[in-house]
Amino acid sequence: MKVDAKKMFVLACGTAAAAVIVGAASLVMTRPAIATAQFAKDTGKACGDCHTNPKGGGPLTPFGETFKANGNKLPK
Q1: How far apart (Å, rounded) are the C-alpha atoms in residues 76 and 73?
Q2: Where along the chain do its domains lie?
Q3: SS3 letters across the chain
């Protein structure tokens, strides 16, 4: 069975291009976490003030929902 070098080159270039596109899209579409444990330390708030889990993460409390709706800024 003969392998056509031109077809293999086109296939390799297409695969590489697809990998570059997927990689670039993953960089554009990811967002860093805004509220972190460091945020809790800086503000003196406990993670459980915003989250139903006292250690942080998971569903938000009403205060956490207000914080999120306020552009991730403490309500005044």
Answers
A1: 9
A2: 1-30, 34-76
A3: CCCCHHHHHHHHHHHHHHHHHHHHHHHHHCCCCCCCHHHHHHHCCCHHHHECCCCCCCCECHHHHHHHHCCCCCCC
Inter-residue contact 54 to 60 (CB < 8 Å): no
What is the model's pTM?
0.47
CA dist., res. 18 & res. 24, Å (int): 10
Burial of 49 (0-12, 13-18, 19+ CB in 10 A): middle
pLDDT tens-digit readout, 2-51: 778 888 998 999 999 999 999 888 877 766 656 667 777 777 888 888 89
Cα dihedral: 10, 14, 16, 22 (round 10): 180
